[in-house]
Amino acid sequence: MGSIAALPPGARVLVDSAPIIYLLDGDERLAPRFRPLFERHHAGELALAISTITIAEVLAGPLGRNEESLARRYRAILTGWEVVPVDPEIAESAARVRVRYRLKLPDAIQVASALAIGADALVTYDRAFGRIRGLPIIDG
């Protein structure tokens, strides 16, 4: 797995849900690991993309705690990034990725989304992605 620092300027990166959740929730242990990614995006060095799966996973925390205003704030933050919708082609690709790498369906959709947009890397904290070939995986 690679590092955020190794991403070249102008890289297009699909971000898995966990790094975003760690940052938004202020996780003291894991947020610092991914903060450079978001700082580089804010500085215009990197283009970030997310899948529609990420929107659902990021919003599930505050919605599960009945914190509607926090969910709206999180959603507003996510609107500034490219969103990759799950279309039939991505769904089929996800099925193939799921079978080939024995991933859970949401993880397979993340990989298929990254491949569909020609992402330079996928950023995650999930060790299951370590089995993926043909797509650089960055874990912070």
Structure in words:
The protein is α/β, with parallel strands linked by helices. The chain has a domain at 9-84 and 119-126: 5'-nuclease (Rossmann fold, 3-Layer(aba) Sandwich). Helices cover 50% and strands 12% of the residues. The chain is built from six helices and five strands; from the N terminus they run βααβααβααββ. It has helices at 17-24, 31-42, 52-64, 68-78, 88-101, 105-116, and strands spanning 12-15, 47-51, 82-84, 121-123, 137-138. A five-stranded parallel beta sheet has the order 3-2-1-4-5. The radius of gyration is 14 Å and the shape is globular. The model has no long low-confidence stretch (mean pLDDT 95).
Question: Main attributes?
Answer:
140 residues; alpha/beta; Rossmann fold; 5-stranded parallel beta sheet; 5 strands; 50% helix
